[in-house]
Write a structure and sequence with these properties.
The complex is a heterotrimer of chains A (338), B (752) and C (294).
Chain A lengths: L3 H31 L4 H13 L6 H14 L6 H14 L13 H36 L4 H13 L4 H15 L17 H39 L2 H8 L4 H27 L5 H7 L4 H11 L2 H29 L7
Helix pairs in contact in A: 1-13, 5-6, 5-8, 5-10, 6-8, 7-8, 7-11, 8-10, 10-13, 11-12, 12-13
Chain B lengths: L1 H25 L23 E5 L30 H5 L4 E4 L4 E4 L7 E3 L4 E5 L14 H13 L5 H9 E8 L2 E6 L11 E2 L13 H4 L19 E6 L5 E6 L4 H5 L8 E5 L4 H9 L5 E4 L1 H10 L3 E2 L17 E5 L9 H9 L3 H8 L8 E2 L10 H6 L3 H6 L8 H9 L13 H10 L3 E2 L5 E2 L7 E6 L9 H12 L2 E6 L3 H5 L6 E4 L46 H6 L10 H13 L7 H15 L2 E6 L3 E5 L3 E2 L18 H6 L2 E2 L20 E2 L4 E3 L45 H26 L1
Parallel strand pairs in B: 1-11, 2-8, 4-26, 18-19, 18-20
Antiparallel strand pairs in B: 2-3, 3-25, 4-5, 5-7, 6-7, 9-10, 10-11, 12-22, 13-22, 14-20, 14-21, 15-21, 16-17, 23-24
Chain C lengths: L1 H14 L5 H19 L38 H37 L1 H16 L2 H12 L5 H28 L2 H8 L4 H37 L10 H10 L8 H29 L8
The chains are: A mainly alpha (338), B alpha+beta (752), C mainly alpha (294).
């Protein structure tokens, strides 16, 4: 049986979780409403202008505007709409996407979600692992050749604009050595075949590679190095070193253990954000995912779809941070609940 | 020691990173590799059986959110991204042959037949047509389409279009339909003729036997679609990245007309960006796409098989787009309500700079266009050349550079007409005449001392606004006008907020017919009401009206200036006459000329050019793309008449084929008739006598017309098969090694 | 008072650069070279903003300053674009880092050390902002502010998505510091919370904070490049992001116009290198034990 104050803490934390989700949703909704975009204008004005279709009868057009506002559920005051969307949020049923009519928001998201999750879970965790290990190793063996090479790599690769980096990757592996085709892939129906694995590999390697290189050598490397350097200057570490402990032992028991706490927090949040997709990666590598869908929806002013995707992301991040808060004491016994 | 080491490390960073950059940026340019295409097609289909087209040419961005939305009349524009729906699957009643302006009888046996008062339209359908599922196509389907749209207001556009125009529809027999119109309208057959784009410009017939069974039309996706065209969908990617279409072997067109398209499969892929398209086409993974003028030079360099408008020769640019590109003034606002200001800003633009900016290495570029009509037959001869004397009064450039004149001549256009002279003195004079003056900083001031600001708005993306708006903003700035340029995603909302000064739009243009499209129809002052497309034509309908007659929504956002427009009544009369005159009636020519003269006099829009578009076909696997010399169709992929381009293709011998036919499809000559609806007093089934229009004024139009030719190309192209330049690669690798070794040695030497 | 102590200590020693270690010096030198290069932008000729003033796509030549780095496809001098871009991008970076890092620092330390209700409220706020996906939020804000956008506002937009991360990280570090012996001693010896923050906790966070500032600066430059790629930066102005935007627009990489592509990228790399060296230099200075590890 858990102690009473722990249960109280848990309940309180979950309350905060709900409040966080609610606030984040409200902020998004307000910002969406301030945005100078009106989907009805977008559909009518754009489809008529792009195609040159004219209607002739202004009265009919006005009627059409009204009909559209009605079907899209965009009628009513700000508060009414807010309540309507909050209701949809609570039931997690955002109804019909305006952009992809008549598909529902769930349907559209379900087409892309597997792609996003597969790519980002894999690449986020891998880049976290690689980045942290490199960071710790580099600070442990500061001054050695390996450390220097890794640092140089990080410094050169990280600041190259993602667009250039991606284009160079596409260039090298899609054109000079055409290992990866540029055209989108077709998934074989049998998901247990070797062909399936090869196809998925073909689609994911380049985007994953770009995320891992930028992520591992960028943020993860730098932050873990900064923290590792802090620990190296601690008394207990100095003592350990003077005792003549092997470097590997120092790395495992002294360094990694200590930098894990903040890094796991960051990882969990990062894993929560994957539901927002990776917009630039998706655009540059032509990868199907939630990022481009969200971008299209934002540009068009498709409220149900934007709120549908953003809500997923909000819930993902909020739950991840909540779980981390609850798990803190297990990783770091020095932290106790108050 | 550490000091030295650090110093070297730094220099090595710089060296290494610069070396990597240089290497990466230069090496790829020295290679051309023929890659094995890895297309998303089922296994066993050879490359030669598949025609690969970039989906971005059909819909912006190349992919839609829901790939299974095939219902034309659904609200929104998702169907645009299904690649081929309107082109390969949907069929209009008539096509317009965009190269000649003739009518192609497709689902019909006769041109449209109007009653003498233009209130009734009779349509005679072709007998023996069947849907892709074998169901016969009859008058019931056409009637059902109209009734379906009329029945459901939630279908939006389709409902509004039918209820505005159609009074009733009735079946005379299984193949004859009578449509009664609410008002006399000799233009109504255009609603059913494929001139441009597809839906929502013209209607498509939907199958009655499929749609009558569905309960909720708002939720129906129509997948897989039942078609009248020569292709059917095989499969679509759930994420919308590709669509695979297959030739229909028992298509009615093959049986009735003997038309059999050559490609067995057509694959629409989304590649996402111009860079990726270039690389894919260089790898021969892509057969057709549109490039911007910046990227077309790259593909022509990289792939010897890439064909632009005149194959690989000058000119690459295809300039027969039906729209002209305009800078539209917000003429309700001061000072843009003043004609002098509009003309001054026109004279401050230097068209030669714009021409050079769009120019590709071959020398082709945009077509400078002083009037808002398309520059091709017959509009060029009738209106652009026809108004030459008028244009001369407005300072047309009489000494254009010879390379621009040469270009116009190659395109068969009037080389004496380019654009207005870049005349800053005249512009200065005009601005001073309305009380403007230059401040001490060289910037223009309004009479009340405020700085003259112009808010220029434009769409981002490859919609031809780029780099035009940047150049115009730059030139106006040099002239002393304070330009605030906004290139915005939320463009349509910005336009409909009415708060801009100048907008980049494309309201002008026209088709190869005598009439001037729908362009002037909205200029009538009765259209100055909420709901009309006011900003689209720059508020011409509201010009000269007292401010209280301007719609509330506009007045709320901007301060409407009082303007005197003496030609208001004349313009209204002309528009009324234009609407009443049938588009095939030669009397319409003088009306359009008068309309254009008024437009020119007041300079409502600055028409800058007819755009240059670079439609590049890859002749590695598929040959016979339409070109300047063999213009059997327009390479206009966003229009559903692109079908005729595909019908002219045949496989080359370079790619393995299995089921594609080796000859291009032949479209029978008899299908093409003169674009002139028939006029009859009685329904066609009651009496077969048909009287043609009594008014016949012959107009002589001289044109160098290239006739429909489908010839087999016999030129044997001798090509070298590009391979990896191994020597270069090895040399570079060696150089890298030597540099690296030397660097390492130096460091070590220094360390000691 | 505590602040004064820290600041005094920092400045006294920065003046005595001899103590600052080589990395710092090297980093600072590169940074100042870039800055001086950037400051050349004050000499920008008036015709620089004009398009097609120079021949298009002219490779580098020594005929005049304008041509040192060649010209772009829209006939502008790469040299002047670059000098302006450095200054503008640095303004965005500085605005962002000053706003985001300090908000994050204050909130992180306060909630870490105070605990209780304050911690809960602050973390609730931070979590709410973290929970909204960053890039879409930036895009929406950039769209809203498009008509009045300027460099400062761009910095504000980017800092809105950056601050919660600093706050979270700093709180995590503070939490682990709070349980350290010296903090507990200080608390038992009756030190006030503020004093503990400044004298016991702040110096330990400073290293991370300095790295964080520099990271945020680089992150801001990167975010601006990302926004520019989507066309949401100020494309009428020269920044490192808009330079990349035009490069992409004109396909400069595929057209082999290396003189246009290399300068912004090389600048980004050098900028990063210099700031990175400065940050490690600062860390070594604040944490003298680090210097022994070699």
């Amino acid at each position: 049986m858990l102690p009473k104050h722990l249960i109280k803490y848990f309940l309180f934390r979950i309350l905060i979780l709900l409040a966080t989700i609610f606030t984040a949703f409200t902020i998004t909704f307000v910002i969406l409403k301030i945005m100078p975009i009106d989907i009805v204008n977008n559909i009518i004005a754009r489809s008529m202008a792009v195609t040159g279709a004219a209607l002739g009868d202004p009265e009919a057009v006005r009627r059409m505007y009204e009909i559209y506002y009605e079907i899209f559920g965009l009628k009513g005051t700000f508060i009414e709409q807010y309540v309507s969307f909050l209701n949809r949020f609570l039931t997690m049923d955002f109804g019909i996407s305006i952009l992809a009519r008549p598909a529902t928001v769930q349907e559209v998201i379900s087409y892309r979600l597997p792609w996003t999750v597969a790519l980002l879970v894999f690449s986020t965790i891998l880049s976290w692992v690689i980045g942290n290990i490199i960071g710790a190793v580099v600070s442990l063996f500061e001054g050695s050749k390996l450390s220097n090479i890794l640092q140089s790599l990080a410094i050169i690769l990280y600041p190259i604009p993602y667009y250039v980096f991606a284009l160079v990757l596409i260039y090298i592996f899609g054109y000079i050595i055409p290992l990866f085709s540029l055209t989108p892939i077709r998934l074989p129906s049998n998901i247990f075949s070797l062909e399936f694995i090869i196809t998925v590999f073909r689609a994911m390697t380049l985007p994953a590679l770009s995320i891992i290189v930028i992520g591992a050598l960028g943020w993860w490397f730098l932050s873990s190095r900064a923290m590792a350097l802090n620990i190296i200057s601690e008394d207990f570490y100095l003592y350990g070193e003077i005792r003549g402990l092997p470097k590997l032992h120092l790395l495992k028991k002294y360094l990694l253990k200590n930098i894990l706490l903040p890094q796991i927090t960051a990882l969990s949040i990062n894993l929560g954000t994957i539901f927002g997709g990776a917009l630039l990666t998706e655009i540059l590598f032509n990868y199907p995912g939630l990022g481009t869908l969200l971008y299209q929806a934002v540009n068009a002013g498709d409220y149900p779809l934007v709120l549908g995707i953003v809500s997923m992301s909000i819930i993902g991040v909020a739950v991840a941070t909540c779980i981390m808060d609850l798990l803190y004491p297990l990783i770091d016994p020095r932290i106790r609940y108050r | 020691m550490r000091k030295n080491w650090l110093k070297h490390r730094l220099s090595i960073y710089v060296l290494v990173c610069n070396f990597i950059l240089l290497a990466v940026l230069t090496i790829p340019n020295s290679f051309t590799v023929t890659a094995m295409p890895q297309l998303p097609i089922p296994p066993g289909i050879p490359r030669g059986d598949v025609l690969v087209i970039e989906n971005g040419v059909v819909c912006p961005g190349g992919w839609g959110p829901d790939p299974y939305q095939f219902n034309y009349y659904q609200v929104g524009w998702a169907t645009a991204c299904t690649g081929f729906l309107q082109t390969g699957c949907g069929s209009p009643l008539w096509y317009m042959n965009l190269t000649s302006g003739e009518l192609i009888l497709w689902l019909t046996e006769k041109p449209p037949i109007y009653s003498t008062d233009y209130k009734t339209l009779w349509i005679m359908l072709r007998k023996g047509i069947s849907w892709s599922d074998g169901h016969p196509f009859t008058a019931d389907d056409l009637i059902f389409t109209i009734e379906y749209c009329r029945k459901y207001p939630e279908l939006g556009l389709c409902n509004v279009r039918i209820t505005t125009n159609v009074e009733s529809v009735r079946k005379l027999d299984d193949y004859t339909v009578e449509i009664k119109l609410k008002e006399p309208n000799p233009y109504y057959h255009y609603e059913w003729t494929m001139r441009h784009y597809g839906w929502p410009v013209n209607f498509y017939v939907i199958p009655k036997h499929v749609f009558e069974k569905i309960e909720d039309p708002v939720k129906y996706k129509f997948y897989p679609p039942v078609c009248l065209g020569p292709y059917k969908i095989v499969d679509a990617d759930p994420t919308g990245k590709w669509y695979l279409w297959e030739r229909l072997e028992n298509w009615w067109g093959t049986k009735l007309l003997g038309i059999k398209p050559s490609p067995k499969y057509i694959l629409f892929v989304a590649l996402g960006s111009q860079e990726r398209s270039v690389i894919a086409m260089a790898n021969n993974e892509l057969d057709f796409t549109e490039f911007t003028s910046e990227y077309v030079r790259i593909i022509m360099d990289r792939n010897p098989y890439a064909w632009a408008w005149n194959k690989r020769d000058f000119p690459w640019a295809w300039t027969r787009d039906e729209g002209t590109r305009e800078l539209v003034f917000n003429i309700l606002k001061y000072p843009f309500n003043l004609t002098e200001v509009r003309w001054a800003l026109t004279y401050a633009i230097d068209y030669k700079v714009i021409f050079d900016a769009y120019k590709t290495p071959d020398g082709s570029s945009i077509v400078p266009n002083p009037l808002p009509v398309s520059r091709f037959y017959p509009l060029e001869q009738l209106y652009v050349s026809g108004l030459k004397t008028e244009l001369m009064k407005y300072n047309l450039d009489t000494t254009p550079p010879s390379y621009i004149q040469d270009y116009l001549r190659v395109l068969g256009l009037d080389d004496a007409i380019t654009w207005y002279k870049h005349d800053l003195e005249k512009a200065e004079e005009l601005l001073k005449s309305v009380g403007f003056y230059r401040g001490s900083d060289g910037k223009w001031r309004l009479p009340d001392g405020k700085i003259f600001e112009v808010n220029l708005i434009s769409l981002p993306g490859a919609e031809f606004s780029f780099p035009l708006v940047h150049i115009v903003a730059d030139q106006w700035r040099r002239f002393g006008v304070d330009v605030k340029l906004e290139v915005i995603e939320a463009y349509w909302d910005r336009v409909y907020s009415h708060t801009w000064d100048v907008a980049f739009e494309w309201p002008g243009g026209g088709f190869p017919t005598l009439d001037w499209w729908e362009t002037p129809r909205e200029w009538h002052s009765k259209n100055c009401v909420p709901g009309a497309r006011l900003p689209w034509v720059g508020y011409i309908m509201c010009y000269g009206l007292p401010p209280e007659k301007i719609p509330e929504g506009v007045r709320k956002n901007i301060e409407v200036a009082k303007t005197v427009f003496p030609d208001r009544e004349k313009l209204d009369n002309l528009v009324e006459k234009y609407i009443d005159t049938p588009p095939w009636d030669p009397r319409i020519v003088d009306i359009v000329k008068d309309l254009l003269s008024i437009h020119l006099k007041y300079k409502f829009w600055i028409t800058v050019f007819s755009p240059a578009r670079y439609m590049v076909g890859n002749s590695y696997c598929w040959e016979g793309w339409p070109t300047l010399k063999e213009r059997y169709a327009e390479p206009k992929p966003y229009c559903s008449s692109f079908l005729f381009t595909i019908l002219g293709l045949k496989p080359s011998e370079r790619c393995p084929i299995k089921e594609s036919t080796t000859e291009p499809a032949k479209v029978p000559k008899g299908l093409t008739v003169e674009l002139k609806p028939l006029v009859s007093e009685y329904p066609p089934t009651v009496t077969p006598t048909v009287i043609t229009t009594p008014t016949m004024i012959t107009i002589t139009v001289v044109e160098e017309r290239t006739r429909t030719i489908i010839s087999t190309i016999t030129t044997k192209v001798v090509e070298e098969v590009p391979t990896i330049d191994w020597t270069l690669l090895i040399t570079m690798a060696l150089v890298t090694l030597v540099i690296g070794a030397a660097g390492g040695y130096l460091i070590r030497a220094r360390k000691k | 008072m505590g602040v004064r102590l820290v600041v005094q200590g920092l400045f006294k020693n920065i003046i005595k650069t001899r103590k600052m270690g080589l990395k710092f010096k090297a980093g600072a030198t590169i940074f100042f070279v870039i800055m001086i290069f950037g400051l050349l932008s004050f000499l920008t000729p008036h015709y620089h903003s004009y398009w097609y003033h120079f021949p298009q796509a002219h490779p580098p030549s020594l005929q005049s300053v304008d041509f040192i780095f060649g010209t772009t496809s829209n006939g502008r001098s790469v040299f002047w674009s670059l000098t302006n871009a450095i200054v503008n991008s640095l303004i965005i970076a500085v605005v962002t880092s000053m706003l985001a890092c300090h908000i994050g620092l204050i909130i992180g330390i306060l909630s870490g050390i105070k605990g209780g209700v304050i911690d809960k409220i602050m973390m609730f706020l931070t979590d709410s902002f973290i929970a909204i996906p960053g890039l879409p939020l930036t895009i929406m804000l950039a769209m809203i502010l498009k008509p009045i956008i300027n460099l400062f506002l761009l910095g504000v937009i980017i800092s809105i998505i950056s601050w919660p991360w600093s706050a979270r990280m700093i709180r995590a570090i503070t939490l682990s510091l709070r349980e350290k012996d010296f903090v507990i001693f200080a608390k038992f010896s009756g030190m006030s919370t503020w004093k503990i923050i400044f004298s016991e906790i702040f110096p330990h966070i400073l290293g991370f904070h300095a790295t964080n500032i520099i990271n945020t600066m680089l992150g801001a430059i990167g975010a601006e490049v990302g926004l520019a790629f989507l066309g949401l930066s100020i494309i009428e102005m020269d920044t490192l992001g808009t330079m990349i935007y035009w490069i992409q627009r004109y396909g400069a990489i595929l057209q082999n116009m290396w003189w246009w592509v290399v300068p912004p990228i090389a600048t980004l790399i050098l900028l990063f290198l210099s700031l990175y060296l400065v940050s490690t230099g600062i860390q070594e200075f604040l944490n003298p034990r680090l210097r022994r590890v070699k």
